[in-house]
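Quick board copy: two proteins, each given as sequence then tokens.
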Amino acid sequence: MERERRYLVSRLPPGVTSTKDIADRYITGTRLRLREVREQDGTVTRKLGHKVRLTPGPEEVACTTFYVDDHEWALLSALPARTLRKKRHLVDADGWLIAIDEFPDGSLLAEIDDGDQPSGEVPDWLDVVRDVSADEAWTGGGLAR
């Protein structure tokens, strides 16, 4: 279960602990996403994900993830898809762990995972421009269009 809030932010805050490159392939006509994650040390992880909305908007989503091997990746990545590339920066500061995605156009999208306890809190050091949690255009699938 994902309960995420998303915010456009003006800058990366201090406290970035890691950065990874992510390529998401949203398979045409499905709710499936192939994800390739490249860590700074060269490690590559590939996954197939399925997301189901539990509410009308993108704020609450049930997720299933399968890790795939090279053969499965080759077969699945041949399917028609829309691709989204980004750098994911993890920020760990003052008890907050926040993922901030940096897109090729320079925009920055912070994701706060509320887990089981929905919250409206945002740390003071996160320079929020706009709350886009309910905006479909700022979901991964929306950005890949």
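And the next:
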Amino acid sequence: MDLVVRAAAERSDWFCAQGAVRVLQAAGEFERAWAVMKPFTETGWLPAVSAGADILLAWGRVEEALTLTRPAGEEPSAGVCEVHAETLVKCGRVDEAITFLEPHLRDRWTMRRLVTMTEGQGRDARVLKLLVPLADEARRHQRQGRPHPLWEALDLQTEVLERSGQVEEAIRVLGDDVAARRYGPQNTVQSYTQLLARHGRVEELEQAATGGHAREAFRPLIKAFTAAGRAQDAEEALRRHIATAEYPRNEQWFLIEFLVGQGRFEEAITAGRPTFEAPWESSLQGIVLLLAENGLHDRALQLLDECSPEFIAEHGDWIPSNRWWLMGELGRCREAIAEIEATPGLDAEERACTIAGLMAQDSRLDEAISLLAEHPGHNATTDRAHLLARRNRPTEALAAIPGVTAQRKEQEQRWGPGNN
């Protein structure tokens, strides 16, 4: 802990500060936690200000927390106002927080933060009074074929209706928006189908899935069927749609996910195999990852080994790295390393990081650390720091990571000024 606290101060390392504060607060050492966070709050950076306020509140210094977050100036930014409002809510002053945010609700992020911070606070009726006029305004604009910046109010209105127990009204309101094709950049149809799934409305979901909204409706439909103990109905609905759809790619993937979830791995492979070597619609990588997540690394590796050289050359540039990862998971680390060393054209740092990871899996930590020390790039130094920490050498691990200034300089060299 002393090392992490020192790093937060000497290196201005935000992640060290966060980690130290988390542990210190859990131990009730609020004074020390505040000493770590205070220099970061003085920069005015909002995540640090919010974290500092949380420390002061936990310490019982409520007025100091409110003073820290209170906006200065006549026209504070929406973000500053949101942090202060959230602090008010944490102090139990919910109505005051809502009143404070009212003038700023034409910022869509502030509107969403209002909904988030008032959840469970018993103020849903008041929040709806603020949201409904904004949602209706967005609807009027969309009826006239004009976009509206507050399109998200439609989804937020139904979110608050649902959490306040008005489920039928939430389904009716959002269903009307879907029927009228009032869609924003965030897909209203997706919100509607997820709402239906949460409440087991299988019939409405089936109507959406077969009525032009297959992409958004089938995954929630499968979830609702499965939750109701009707897995066979889910499969039949999917297969019927795949058989008749003009472009069934998404639904084929839903079927694969469903079969894997049922433990029917070979059937999932059979369902996906016709697309394995399709140039733009291959399901192979997705199936490989699903198999690996279920502990079937050997079967996943077998699928990769069955790929044609032509597919690998044209579209399978991801296959070698996945093969080596799977070989490592199967305990074939040295064999994978030999393959990597014999593969031409790999970036030197990428090669070193991959080999070092396999060495670490093979209990050769010191060799991996030495290999990574030869490469000064960001990925290699970060990987080396992780391995040094695993080796119980935390001081060296911290020293291996460049400071903030050095990291910014590296980013500017790579991407140009202003991109760090």
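Board note added afterward: The two ends are 28 Å apart (CA to CA).
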